[in-house]
Write a structure and sequence with these properties.
The chain is of the alpha+beta class. It has helices spanning about 60-80, 90-100, 115-120, 160-170, and strands at about 5-10, 15-20, 30-35, 40, 50-55, 85-90, 110, 125, 130, 135-140, 145-150.
Length: about 170
């Protein structure tokens, strides 16, 4: 694991993020994440369509919930043309419960709880808490990152408009 100089303001202090700071033009790192039914999915499962990756510390918190619901609304509008996922370290069972309680049906929630390999590859891993930071990535249909936002403070929402504009450009 390589620590970076980037931090995420979490529980009153800056926490060091592990992994690279990805930028537009970088190839999207592969990943292996778990669905709510404990099946493994990889980046290749989303090939051919643009992919919006919303990363949150935990679905059971206010801002993470709001972020996921907001992107779920966009997913409902663009489902036939783009893929949407939310990644957290929450257990798949907790993600399934949360989706049912919040009527999130247009996007997948995927868990990085096993090895935190997604977080390490995408530079969102908060090793001190074994959680993800808040971030948004847009990957085009060929696997190239077209948008990357690392939100610097846990209580801050991402720039939804910029992320969705980048996704629409990738369509």
């Amino acid at each position: 694991m390589s620590e970076s100089t980037r931090t995420f303001e979490f529980f009153g202090g800056p926490q060091t993020l592990v992994g690279p700071g990805l930028r537009p033009g970088d190839p999207a790192p592969d990943f292996a994440l778990l669905t709510n039914r404990l099946q493994t999915v990889t980046l290749a499962d989303f090939a051919g369509k643009p992919l919006l990756i919303s990363v949150v510390p935990s679905l059971d918190t206010g801002v993470c919930s709001k972020q996921t619901v907001r992107f779920n609304q966009a997913a409902a509008e663009l489902a036939d043309r783009a893929n949407f996922i939310t990644v957290s370290a929450d257990l798949p069972f907790a993600q399934a419960r949360w989706c049912g309680s919040n009527d999130v049906t247009s996007m997948q929630t995927l868990s990085d709880h096993r090895e935190m390999a997604f977080g390490q590859s995408y530079g969102t891993y908060l090793a001190a808490f074994r959680l993800e930071s808040r971030a948004v990535f847009v990957v085009d249909g060929q696997g190239v990152i077209r948008y990357a936002e690392y939100v610097p403070v846990a209580g801050q929402e991402p720039n939804y408009d910029a992320a969705l504009a980048a996704l629409r450009e990738a369509l």
